[in-house]
Amino acid sequence: MICFTEKEGFGMPRTLDSIWETLETLSPDDQRQLRERLEESSARRAETTGMKAFHQALLASGLVKTIKKPRAGVTDQRHLIEVNGKPLSETIIEERR
Predict the structure, then answer these.
(1) Is pLDDT at 4 greater than 80 in this prediction?
(2) Cα separation of 63 and 36, whole Å?
(3) Rounded Cα–Cα distance for residues 55 and 66 (Å)
(4) DSSP structure class, residue 91
(5) pLDDT band at 1 (very low <50, low <70, confident <90, very high)
(6) Which domain holds residue 62?
(7) Is residue 42 part of a domain?
(8) Which of 26, 68, 79, 95 is most buried by a 10 A CB count?
(9) Number of folded domains that form the chain
């Protein structure tokens, strides 16, 4: 964990050397776990950056006017229902003929 001191101010890490010294004391398994977490964090950041660029391109092209943020904590859990008779897809195909 990166720590901050009052002397260095908010947002300034103590030193990378002290972090490196701490890393050297980790067991190989802890180092592997740290590497995995860093890779996951980097992948999430890259995905977010890519999504932001995609949204900006949509806005700039005029294809969309606004980008809505997803509602936090809301998951759509849809439940299947049983339908009597033939499958709905068959009905749709027949009606289009």
Answers:
(1) no
(2) 38
(3) 9
(4) H
(5) very low
(6) 1-70
(7) yes
(8) 26
(9) 1
Q: State how far the Cα of 57 lies from the Cα of 53, in Å rounded to an integer.
A: 6
Instruction: Quote the tokens at residue 48.
Output: 């977010």
Please check whether residue 34 is in contact with residue 23, taking contact to mean a CB–CB distance below 8 angstroms.
yes
The tokens of 22 are what? 């701490």
Residue 58 lies in a domain: yes
Contact 33, 25 (CB under 8 A): no
**79 belongs to a structural domain:** no
Residue 14 lies in a domain: yes
pLDDT tens-place string over residues 15-73: 888 888 888 898 999 989 989 998 998 888 888 888 899 999 999 999 999 988 877 76
The DSSP line for 15-81 is: -HHHHHHHHHTS-HHHHHHHHHHHHHHHHHHHHHHHHHHHHHHHHHHTS-S--PPPPTT--------
